[in-house]
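Run log, item B.
One chain of 326 residues. Sequence copied directly from the ordering sheet:
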Amino acid sequence: MATQNTCLNCGAPLAGDARHGFCPKCLFLQASGGMENSEVDSAESVQAGSSSPPADSAPHEGHTLRPAAGLSFGDYELLEEIGRGGMGVVYRARQRSLNRVVAIKMMAFGPNSSPELVKRFRAEAVSAASLHHPNIVAIHEVGIHEERHFFVMDYVEGQSLTKAIADCGLRIADFRRTAQWVKTIAEAVHYAHERGILHRDLKPSNVLIDVQDQPHVVDFGLARQLEGDSELTVTGQVLGSPQYLPPEQATGQRGRVSRRTDVYALGATLYHLLTGRPPFQAESLAQTLDLVLHAEPVAPRLLNPSVSRDLETICLKCLEKEPARR
């Protein structure tokens, strides 16, 4: 890959002796695990045919989206950077051998990436590559080039559901469209469940709406295999975006997640579409998680009287605290 004169992670100018294309601050953050905080605030910023990241996945301070026109990466010519997050950077690229436009996601820290980050990055690729559904972004290649892990996926021209919400989430004429989007997303998620994969990070910025108005699920960075009775015991840190996490995932301590975990996130996404805001939001992560665990969401019709009772009922049923009631 061509020599960089700016940090691949934050865009800061690099000294002539900088290693692996990263500034000292970013190398320190990665080594200390600081970059993984973005998995609490939001998941990966992903491609949506736009040059700006989704609203709920703002880059770290100092990040800029920079053109990459002309840079070579194996069989690919990088055309522009279209997204970034805690685990990687996404580029729109042209695959020379097949003369087609694709999206490439690369690990941001190359050979300096921690083993846990590499494992999570490759798990995303493996999970998504096993799924072949018209509304799940397809993975075409997984590999390592010049010590950088990467995978290649379909390039979706359009916008994120986050942007679509800003454009039409509160207009009564769009409620049928909203319901169709969520129905299609739910069918794609059901397909993944039937093949033993939980997404665990469904939210508006992880859905892309193409130019035919069809949704596509992306970013399986937190996906997990279903086991035994279709449940998986998860321990350790809270992963995912807090506004869309169900209580059993928000605890981060031996919370049992299941298919109903993704059902909750679908309900939270529908809630955002109907009301223009997530079901729970506060000034801090701790306050948001406390609301997720102990508060009931405001009924959508109180925030937007135009919402139909049927959609409100479906939405609130998905957002039940107790998984068995969803």
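Observations after the first pass:
- The domain at 158-325 is CATH 1.10.510.10 (Transferase(Phosphotransferase); domain 1).
- Residues 185 and 306 are 23 Å apart (CA to CA).
Flagged for discussion on Thursday.
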